[in-house]
Amino acid sequence: MKKITRILAIALTLVLVFSLASCAKVAQGSIRTGTWSENTFTNEWINIKVTLPDGWRALTAEELQQSVGAGEEIIVNNGTNQAALDVAKMRTAYDFSVMAEVGVPNAMLMYENLALSPLTKNLDESGYFDSMKTQFEAMADLGYSVLESDETVIAGEKYFVGKLSLMDGAAYQNYYFRKFDGAMIGVILTFTADTQADAESFISSITKAK
According to the model, what pLDDT value does residue 136 have? Predict the structure, then answer.
């Protein structure tokens, strides 16, 4: 449990930065979360379906809450005001957090409602990622650096991809963004050099729900 919590705390640190990229408290709006049936997740709103690979599992609510708390501690220790973080959390919906048996790769699906976010609601996916860069730079003690950006297709839809290294190259994160229906969809993938192929296989396995 401690190992899982630490890995996901690191991953959630930038997930929390993701939700800090804009500045307004927003309502749930049109966001609709998905459902699990055994090891298959479906969200018809964003039209995706995920069947977990062998050895992967979804985190329990308790494990995710522990990881969110650890991630918050990291980001507050790096200078983020707790009040600003609390507001950001009210804008953000987590849909799943899944991981391989050893902790990496792991992936999270989340949304930020942009309807009342004046600084970011008119940005495209690339601009949204650019708006996060100053927050990344504030995470200096975790060894974050932005590597490159790209585009890919997930379940038939085009996603912007922002790629980062963390802990001075000990691990990596890819941020897959798509703006849809007043929200920013984010799939955050954390992996190591040794598990990159498994991470990419997970992304490519995501299909349309309908």
Answer: 73
Q: Are strands 92-99 and 48-51 parallel, antiparallel or unpaired?
A: unpaired
Q: What is the CATH number of domain 2-204?
A: 3.40.1000.10
Angle, CA 137 vertex, CA 134 and CA 141 arms, to 5° = 150
Choose from 40-44, 80-84, 96-100, 180-184 the range with maximum mean pLDDT.
40-44
Radius of gyration, CA atoms only, the chain: 16
Q: DSSP alpha helices (H): ranges in the chain?
A: 2-19, 61-77, 82-91, 125-137, 196-204
Question: Which residues, at least 6 apart from 12, have a Cβ–Cβ distance to it below 8 Å?
Answer: 67, 68, 70, 71, 108
Instruction: Name the pTM for this structure.
Output: 0.82
Angle between helices 2-19 and 61-77 (to 10 degrees): 60
CA angle 119, 176, 128 (to 5 degrees): 15
d(CA 49, CA 42): 4
Q: Answer yes or no: are the C-beta atoms of 23 and 117 closer than 8 Å.
A: yes
Spacing of C-alpha 196 from chain mean position: 17
Q: Are 187 and 41 in contact (CB under 8 A)?
A: no
pLDDT of 166-190, one tens digit each? 877 888 989 999 999 988 999 999 9
Compute the distance between CA of residue 64 and CA of residue 66 in angstroms, rounded to an integer. 5
Measured in whole angstroms, how far is the alpha carbon of residue 42 from the centre of its chain? 17
Domain map (residue ranges) of the chain: 2-204
